[in-house]
Design a protein that fits this description.
With 167 residues, the protein is α+β, with helices and mostly antiparallel strands. It is built from 4 helices and 8 strands. A hairpin with a 3-residue loop joins strand 5 and strand 6. The model has no long low-confidence stretch (mean pLDDT 91). The protein is 29% helix and 37% strand. It has a single domain, classed as Alpha-D-Glucose-1,6-Bisphosphate, Chain A, domain 4, CATH 3.30.530. The longest helix has 22 residues.
Length: 167
């Protein structure tokens, strides 16, 4: 399994897909995906109503090279613990998280449907989700991100790696 994001063009849409094997159970990873106190350790401050039709708001705690951060608002479109979470958001498109058991851990598949993304922004999306998935694995091991000092240089290295692939 590759930890890298793959770009899939389908029916005029751009899908970014990641597949990661995590050494934690689906139930443990589910907590990290759905509980606000857990989400803040690797993704964003969050309000999440845990049901289909529920409201979601993700407030990113990291900033870009210009000091900007993002807020995504949307709706929970699928909620099947501890297997499937799908969020339809205004700025990050449709985010689909699937978990399946794998031995003593699980496989996480994230698909971001970002239908109308400019090609220069696609590299930022790839590097962003890649970095957040790295942060997820670290948070599951007890290492929450220090957001005021988050490793922008790490993100840049990942970004440059995707750029070198000439996606």
């Amino acid at each position: 399994m590759s930890a890298d994001g793959n770009v899939i063009k389908k029916d005029g849409r751009t899908l970014v897909r990641y597949e990661r094997r995590l050494r934690h159970s689906p139930e443990r990873v589910w907590q990290a995906l759905t509980e606000p106190k857990e989400l803040s350790g690797w993704l964003a401050d969050a309000d999440l109503e845990p049901a289909v039709g529920g409201r979601v708001e993700l407030r990113w705690l990291n900033t870009d090279e210009h000091g900007n951060s993002a807020v995504a608002r949307g709706t929970v479109t699928a909620f099947d613990p501890p297997r499937l979470l799908e969020l339809d958001t205004d700025i990050h498109g449709r985010l689909r998280w699937e978990l399946s058991p794998d031995g003593d851990g699980c496989v996480l598949v994230l698909v971001a449907d970002i239908s109308h993304v400019p090609s220069d922004f696609l590299l930022k999306v790839l590097a962003g989700w890649h970095t957040h998935l790295d942060f997820l694995a670290e948070a599951l091991d007890g290492q929450r991100v220090d957001w005021p000092n988050w490793p922008l240089d790490r993100w840049q290295e990942i970004h440059d790696g995707y750029a070198a692939k000439r996606l």
